[in-house]
UniProtKB/TrEMBL annotation:
Record PANTHER family: PYRIDOXINE-5'-PHOSPHATE OXIDASE, PYRIDOXINE-5-PHOSPHATE OXIDASE
Cofactor requirements of the protein: FMN
GO biological process: pyridoxine biosynthetic process
Family, as annotated: Belongs to the pyridoxamine 5'-phosphate oxidase family.
Domain of life from the UniProt record: Bacteria
InterPro entries for this protein: Pyridox_Oxase (IPR000659), Pyridox_Oxase_N (IPR011576), Pyridoxamine_oxidase_dimer_C (IPR019576), Split_barrel_FMN-bd (IPR012349)
Domain Pyridoxine 5'-phosphate oxidase dimerisation C-terminal span(s) in chain numbering: 179-219
EC number: 1.4.3.5
Protein name as it appears in the record: Pyridoxal 5'-phosphate synthase
Pfam families for the chain: PNP_phzG_C (PF10590), PNPOx_N (PF01243)
Length: 219
């Protein structure tokens, strides 16, 4: 079957630019410093929105789901952190199956990072403090609420959002009880460096009882 999409798809290329080198032999013993290094390099290279990974979860029946979220942090204590509403689809999925994956793609450098592991819910105060340190828009969006529920009309969204913006401006510390911070503590992190000749370099870190195991993977 042909469609208008196919010629467009065939006209597009990946890894068509100068890509950085990656020497896995010089990679650190743990994935976090390498993630921080690659993240800073993505920002320096002008990669738009490098902090917006895909978050994959599964529902109670084991069916996969995925969406974009904002990365709130990555450190040794908490792992990779993000936030959302507990009552959203992802919030319910994480409550039923507290395990997730984050996928970062930074095409400016042909780099991909995959992070997988168990997810825990941070104390409520952490989520509220994180939210109140963000923009008025972020608070207004959180206050609007009802995430993933069916919306009757855009007029309704307009009304609720207007009220939420007013409140966020009046009350910058307004609590949003459903807003939840999640922390993914990885047991696997994979770094992929694209290569124009398709000799992509993949380095996978796996958590073991004796620290992190590093392995190369066939591309
Ligand atoms: C760039 C970008 C960043 C986003 N960041 C978040 C976020 O940090 N938290 C969130 O709940 N939704 C975020 N969203 C919206 C989600 O992708 C998604 O639409 C929403 O969370 C509902 O997902 P769910 O029904 O699977 O729970 C973001 C969307 C985009 C495009």
């Amino acid at each position: 079957m042909t469609s208008d999409l196919e010629p467009l798809l065939r006209s597009l290329r990946v890894w068509d630019t100068e890509l950085p080198a990656f020497d896995p032999g010089a990679a650190p013993a743990e994935p976090l410093p390498l993630f921080v290094e690659w993240f800073a390099a993505a920002v320096a290279a002008g990669q738009p929105e490098p902090h917006t990974p895909s978050l994959a979860t599964t529902d109670a029946e084991g069916r996969a789901d995925v969406r974009t979220v904002m990365l709130h942090g990555a450190d040794a204590a908490d792992g990779w952190t993000f936030a959302s509403h507990a009552g959203s689809a992802k919030g319910r999925q994480l409550a039923a199956r507290p395990y997730a994956a984050l996928g970062f793609y930074w095409p400016v450098q042909g780099r991909q990072v995959r992070v997988r592991g168990p997810v825990r819910t941070a104390p409520a105060a952490v989520a509220q403090a994180d939210l109140h340190a963000r923009s008025t828009g972020a608070l207004a969006a959180a206050l609007t609420g009802h995430q993933s529920e069916t919306l009757a009309s855009l007029d309704e969204l307009e009304r609720e959002s207007r009220a939420a913006w007013d409140r966020a401006q009046r009350e910058p510390d307004a609590p949003v009880p459903s807003w939840t911070a999640y922390a993914l503590q990885p047991d696997e992190v994979e770094f992929f460096q694209g290569d124009a000749r398709r000799r992509h370099v993949r380095l996978k870190y796996s958590r073991t009882e004796n620290g992190w195991l590093k392995e190369l993977l066939w591309p």
